[in-house]
Design brief:
Length: 98
């Protein structure tokens, strides 16, 4: 049992490393825009693709904070329209009418 758990942990770690490398190669200097509709308390039992539970949302925001420079939409437009040469990973978080 412990061997199976270790193997799964190795796969997860390898996947994270692969994602990190992919991000370094393909997202350098680009702007990623994430659009959320609704964040709900974990206790609410609504299963819809437009809903993110609060715990997962906080984990996603922590990930963005670590891996991206999170900016507002106006700053993103400035970066997009400028001769951006710093090659940072940018992210914008938006909410629609949810």
């Amino acid at each position: 049992m412990l061997r199976i758990i270790r193997e799964h942990v190795r796969k997860i770690i390898a996947w994270e490393q692969l994602c990190r490398q992919w991000r370094k190669i393909f997202l350098k200097g680009k702007i990623v825009v994430l659009m959320y509709h609704e964040v709900l308390d974990d206790a609410q039992n609504i299963d819809a693709w437009t809903v993110v539970k609060q715990t997962m949302f906080l984990r996603q925001m922590e990930y963005l904070r670590r891996e991206f420079q999170v900016i507002g939409i106006r700053e993103a437009l400035n970066v997009f329209n400028s001769a951006n040469t710093d090659k940072r990973n940018y992210a914008v978080v938006t909410f629609d009418d949810g």
